[in-house]
From TrEMBL:
<keyword id="KW-0106">Calcium</keyword>
<dbReference type="InterPro" id="IPR011603">
    <property type="entry name" value="2oxoglutarate_DH_E1"/>
</dbReference>
<dbReference type="GO" id="GO:0004591">
    <property type="term" value="F:oxoglutarate dehydrogenase (succinyl-transferring) activity"/>
</dbReference>
<comment type="similarity">
    <text>Belongs to the alpha-ketoglutarate dehydrogenase family.</text>
</comment>
<dbReference type="GO" id="GO:0005634">
    <property type="term" value="C:nucleus"/>
</dbReference>
<keyword id="KW-0496">Mitochondrion</keyword>
<dbReference type="InterPro" id="IPR031717">
    <property type="entry name" value="ODO-1/KGD_C"/>
</dbReference>
<dbReference type="Pfam" id="PF16078">
    <property type="entry name" value="2-oxogl_dehyd_N"/>
</dbReference>
<dbReference type="GO" id="GO:0005739">
    <property type="term" value="C:mitochondrion"/>
</dbReference>
<keyword id="KW-1017">Isopeptide bond</keyword>
<keyword id="KW-0786">Thiamine pyrophosphate</keyword>
<keyword id="KW-0560">Oxidoreductase</keyword>
<dbReference type="InterPro" id="IPR032106">
    <property type="entry name" value="2-oxogl_dehyd_N"/>
</dbReference>
<protein>
    <recommendedName>
        <fullName>2-oxoglutarate dehydrogenase complex component E1</fullName>
        <ecNumber>1.2.4.2</ecNumber>
    </recommendedName>
</protein>
<dbReference type="Pfam" id="PF00676">
    <property type="entry name" value="E1_dh"/>
</dbReference>
<keyword id="KW-0539">Nucleus</keyword>
<keyword id="KW-0460">Magnesium</keyword>
Length: 1018
């Protein structure tokens, strides 16, 4: 018994293959007659052999006749204490070559040495097959130039060297090449044949794995998926195209190539980031779309860098050629709206009929900047939203395609972040097809200096995505790979990567000289025959097309381009609205303007407040056990609702819940948002006795409410903020919020903030209502958890500090419409409630940046009443002084303007110094766009007072540099606005608690020293 258990212990480790160990159990398995043709082999090759042996052992214990005779002997001997190496006796009947019933019935015995050699040879063949499956891509002919190795290494793995003198490493001889071996079930190279000679096995393996397609998939830990890929690439003759398919492929290559040629002829001195060297990308994308449309996809969302974008717009998205060509006209005037962007950054949305499937297909190419790969999570978020609103839970109707450059795919961290969203429940898009345009060079950087991994695509291995490397100068191989990739995504709902190994015919752009840095590569490129000519010559030689037909196809497309070029000269104005990638039908008027310039009251009836409060303070699921501490939280909520009070968490609950009632989908995403970083939210309840049993009370508010999605994200900012931005693109009728764990964590999403959120509407006329919730406040927590860096957002706000505005009844709404985003720092739960609801009730969408509190979440004074959120109430852009000082305005000596948490510090200090009649405190709740009108009113109310801006942030940070010139504009420089706060500093906060308190005391003393500014020169 102990020997058997010892054997099991040796077999248990995952990944140790029995046949590779050549141990006793493998020989029993192979010689017992239940070998290669049975399903058992799969368990051996998939690393689960120990389970199989153990199950067989227990079966033998019950009935010794239930296993093969050889296993019976082995188990008997092992139980008797015979050492494992001696417990095995070869069975009397073995014939791996024929396994004929005749051999078994005649009881012919095989000589021990011959039997052992036969077993070892079969094991060797299995090893050989597996070596090609794992490492065949290392010797595949992937580089069209024939000068580089796609994996950066010219070394050939020794287990793939199958010359006669090297076969000895497998224990095989030259004589074995014509020997017939039975094929394992883990290969499809035999087709309908179950046995092949070793020579033929090697030939077929080389055809499958070492030609123009290199496969990386054996790291996938799912046998079914591995078998699926093997069948797609190993089956003899499976890569086959009809003449019609070949002619279609040629026509698409003609369009791809001649489009670039046309641009080069007409605008030879213009940057266009052409596709020369990878012209096959256009038919590749069209093949993916054809196959995806065939299996039911209705909407494909694409993201890509600048290289080849114009060609994709023209020949995949089918943007009108004249609209593309007019972009090259230097006399083209800009439209009134937006700054626009360079032509190779623009996006497009188009609905058309797919000509191959005759099905409707909607395509969206998302606009993006030169920040490489930044568009990846944006595309994923938009795709997720489209799937969500269509009820497409498996991604069968909506899909995403991402194109990448090789250097960026390996070098940009957001690629890794986005991959790690691919299988998360609230972020998955059910598989993305990644197409890497592998130029084998960055801008000027050799790939050996640009990455440490063998391939640029190795990052995809972390999510078990298969990687198909393919020589881009073999169009039929590319098309086959694209078909398989589309089928893979539809079958398994998993990511897949196509690595188009190609070259870049020009430099980084058409004005760049690549010979400076890559002379040998570009000498070869200058001699390289274009893929269109190669493929046309091939089809002409085989009689699929004639030379005349080929030339007519070229002439036809050249004529299309010339006619479009003529029409493009009539375009005088660039209308950015023609390049929308995410239109919102029905939201705006036909002219793209809001239907009105007003916003209704954001208040809600008391009965709705009480209903939401009742759900927020209860567990709406029977038999659901919550944590004792949470019970106290819910009890506290219940008491507040009885007293007509809401705190910060309840204010948010009221805003979200009331929007859900009105049919607005609410999505809250970020690190730990379900509970809330500061344990205040608790939107997801966890049963204390049942694993994974949760309850979201917000989804139990109303019978026909909109869904509420609250989801903890991966520990990512760049990727997740991009994702939520993309989600918010899809529909204006959703409140999409991202909350940072701490406000300064948005630093690592700065690219999304700068390139998409602050400037997206100006560049691409892309309205977006995303909300960023950034916990902010100086509370002695150190430099990393204090400041959300409001100065950065304010610096990028586009309102003019020097322009004295014209005040009108709808001034506040017009301000919001003209700004690029809204920046607020609310000091009350009611105002937080109103600004969230206003975000949806506005007739347009703008990004909203909210500096949210930490200590105020539980501050006894930071509460609001039902009266402050009832019908007729609104968001207060500025909250004026409401105490005794307001009734005694003529005698007020100082007006302190502030924003956010510092207000409560100021109120407390004012009370302590008994200055409630002499000092007024006003809160600027909406900082950008600046409330000029309300500040003017508040200033004029106190004609004899000093004016002070007080902030807890350092002088070179926070709000002062933004508000000061705007105050002076309002005052027309007639009165000064003094600064009170911390001195300038490099770090946003001190890390010493005592220093923090000293700084606080110092600026509070200054704020209430009524003689502090006397005699000072402004």
């Amino acid at each position: 018994m102990s020997h058997v258990r010892l054997l099991f212990a040796k077999l248990r480790p995952r990944g140790i293959q029995l046949w590779a160990m050549q141990n006793v159990a493998a020989k029993i398995f192979l010689q017992s007659g239940c070998g290669f043709s049975s399903g058992v082999t799969e368990s051996f090759l998939n690393g689960s052999s120990s389970n199989y042996v153990e199950e067989m052992y227990y079966a033998w214990l019950e009935n010794p006749k239930s296993v093969h005779k050889s296993w019976d002997v082995f188990f008997r001997n092992a139980n008797a204490g015979v050492p494992p190496g001696e417990a095995f006796h070869r069975p009397p009947l073995v014939s791996l070559e024929s396994r004929s019933s005749q051999f078994q019935s005649q009881g012919l015995a095989m000589a021990p040495a011959k039997a052992e050699k036969l077993v070892e040879d079969h094991l060797a063949v299995q090893l050989l097959i597996r070596a090609y499956q794992i490492r065949g891509h290392h010797v595949a002919q992937l580089d069209p130039l024939g000068i580089l190795d796609a994996d950066l290494d010219s070394f050939v793995p020794s287990d793939l060297i199958t010359t006669i003198d090297k076969l000895e490493r497998y224990g095989l001889q030259e004589a074995d090449l014509d020997k017939v071996f039975r094929l394992p079930t883990t290969t499809f190279i035999g087709g309908d044949e179950i046995s092949l000679s070793l020579r033929e096995i090697i030939r077929r393996l080389e055809n499958s794995y070492c030609q123009h397609i290199g496969l990386e998939f054996m790291f996938i830990n799912d046998l079914e998926q591995c078998q699926w890929i093997r069948q797609k690439f190993e089956t003899p003759g499976i890569i086959h195209f009809t003449n019609e398919q070949k002619r279609t492929l040629l026509a698409r290559l003609v369009r791809s190539t001649r489009f670039e040629d046309f641009l080069a002829r007409k605008w030879s001195s213009e940057k266009r980031f052409g596709l020369e060297g990878c012209e096959v990308m256009i038919p590749a994308l069209k093949t993916i779309l054809d196959k995806s449309s065939e299996v039911g996809v209705e909407y494909a969302i694409l993201g890509m860098p600048h290289r080849g974008r114009l060609n994709v717009l023209a020949n995949v998205i089918r943007k009108e050629l004249e609209q593309i060509f007019c972009q090259f006209d230097p006399k083209l005037e800009a439209s009134d709206e937006g700054s626009g962007d360079v032509k190779y950054h623009l996006g497009m949305y188009h609905e058309r009929i797919n000509r191959v499937t005759n099905r409707k297909l909607t395509l969206s190419l998302v606009a993006n900047p030169s920040h490489l790969e930044a568009v990846n999570p944006v595309v994923q978020g938009k795709t997720k939203a489209e799937q969500f609103y269509r009820g497409d839970t498996e991604g069968k109707k909506v899909m995403s395609i991402l194109l990448h450059g090789d250097a960026a795919f390996a070098g940009q961290g957001v690629v890794y972040e986005t991959f790690h969203l691919s299988d998360l429940p609230s972020y998955t898009t059910n598989g993305t097809i990644h197409v890497v345009v592998n130029n084998q060079i960055g801008f000027t950087t050799d790939p050996r200096m640009a990455r440490s991994s063998p391939y640029p695509t190795d990052v995809a291995r972390v999510v078990n995505a298969p990687i198909f490397h393919v020589n881009a100068d073999d169009p039929e191989a590319v098309m086959y790979v694209c078909n398989v990739a589309a089928e893979w995504r539809n079958t398994f709902q998993k990511d897949v990567v196509i690595d188009l190994v190609c070259y870049r015919r020009s430099g980084h752009n058409e004005m760049d000289e690549p010979m400076f840095t890559q002379p040998l590569m570009y000498k070869q490129i200058r001699k390289q025959v274009p893929v269109l000519k190669k493929y046309a010559d091939k089809l002409i030689a085989e009689g699929t097309v004639t030379l005349q037909e080929f030339e007519e196809e070229i002439a036809k497309y050249d004529k299309i381009c010339e006619e479009a070029y003529t029409r493009s000269k009539d375009e005088k104005i660039l209308h950015i609205k023609h390049w929308l990638d995410s239109p919102w039908p029905g939201f705006f008027t036909l002219e793209g303007e809001p239907k009105s310039m007003s916003c209704p009251s954001t208040g809600i009836p008391e009965e709705i407040v009480k209903h939401i409060g009742g759900v927020a303070s209860s567990v709406p699921v029977e038999g659901f056990k919550i944590h004792g501490g949470l019970s106290r939280v819910l009890k506290s909520r219940e008491e507040m609702i009885k007293n007509g009070i809401v705190d910060w968490a309840l204010g948010e609950y009221m805003a979200f819940g009331s929007l859900l009632k009105e049919g607005i989908h609410v999505r809250l995403s970020g690190q730990d948002v379900e509970r809330g970083t500061f344990s205040h939210r608790h939107h997801v309840l966890h049963d204390q006795d049942v694993d994974k049993r949760t309850c979201v009370p917000m989804n139990h508010l109303w019978p026909n409410q909109a869904p509420y999605t609250v989801c903890n994200s991966s520990l990512s900012e760049y990727g997740v903020v991009g994702f939520e931005l993309g989600f918010a693109m899809a529909s204006p009728n959703a409140l999409v919020c991202w909350e940072a764990q701490f406000g300064d964590f948005h630093n690592t999403a700065q690219c999304i903030t700068d390139q998409f959120i602050s400037s997206g509407q100006a560049k691409w006329v892309r309205h977006n209502g995303i909300v960023l919730l950034l916990p902010h406040g100086m509370e002695g927590m150190g430099p990393e958890h204090s400041s959300a860096r409001p100065e950065r957002f304010l610096q990028m706000s586009n309102d003019d500090s020097d322009a004295y505005p014209e005040f009108s009844p709808d001034f506040d709404i017009c301000q919001l419409y003209e700004c690029n985003w809204i920046v607020v720092n609310c000091s009350t739960p009611a105002n937080y409630f109103h600004v969230l609801r206003r975000q949806i009730l506005l007739p347009f969408r703008k990004p909203l940046i909210i500096f949210t509190p930490k200590s105020l979440l539980r501050h006894p004074e930071a509460k609001s009443t039902f009266e402050e959120i009832k019908p007729g109430t609104h968001f207060q852009r500025l909250i004026p002084e409401g105490g005794p000082a307001a009734d005694n305005a003529q005698n007020v000596k100082r007006v302190i303007f502030c924003t956010g948490k510092v207000y409560y510090d100021l109120v407390k200090e004012r009370h302590n110094q008994d200055l409630v009649n002499q000092v007024a405190i006003a809160r600027v709740e909406q900082i950008a766009p600046f409330p000029f009108d309300l500040v003017k009113t508040e200033v004029e109310k106190y004609p004899n007072a000093d004016l002070v801006w007080c902030q807890e942030e350092h002088k070179n940070m926070g709000y002062y540099e933004y508000v000061k010139p705007r105050f002076l504009t309002v005052l027309k420089y007639a009165r000064p606005i003094w600064y009170v706060g911390r001195d300038p500093a490099a770090a946003p906060a001190t890390g010493n608690k005592n220093t923090h308190l000293l700084e606080l005391k110092r600026f509070l003393d200054t704020a209430f020293n009524l003689e502090s500014f006397e005699g000072k020169k402004f």
